[in-house]
Design brief:
two-stranded parallel ribbon, 2 strands, globular
C-alpha cells in the first residue's frame, strides 16, 4: 500500500481516495509515505450531511461494513448508529 501510494503520488495524484473499508488500517502509513492526503469515500457525503443539518442517514453495506469499525469510523463521533 505504501509503495502504491508513492507510485500514485509520482504519477501526479493530488490525493488518494480510500474506497475499501478495510484500508482504514493503512491510511496513516500510506499518507505518511506518499505525502498525500488519504480521503475516505464517506468524507464528502458526511460533510454534505452535516452542511444540510441532516441527522439520520441510511447506509447499505456488507456485514463487514455494517458491523466493523471501519464503516462507521468515517462518520463524526455521535452522528451514526447501526440498526
Amino acid at each position: 500500500m505504501r509503495t502504491s501510494g508513492t507510485h500514485l503520488e509520482a504519477a501526479g495524484a493530488d490525493f488518494l481516495l480510500r474506497v475499501a473499508p478495510a484500508l482504514h488500517q493503512m491510511a496513516d502509513p500510506v499518507e505518511a509515505a506518499a505525502g498525500l492526503l488519504v480521503l475516505h469515500v464517506a468524507d464528502v457525503p458526511a460533510a454534505a450531511v452535516r452542511a444540510r443539518g441532516m441527522r439520520t442517514v441510511g447506509l447499505l453495506g456488507t456485514r463487514f461494513t455494517m458491523t466493523g469499525a471501519s464503516g462507521w469510523a468515517a462518520w463524526p463521533s455521535g452522528t451514526a448508529s447501526a440498526c
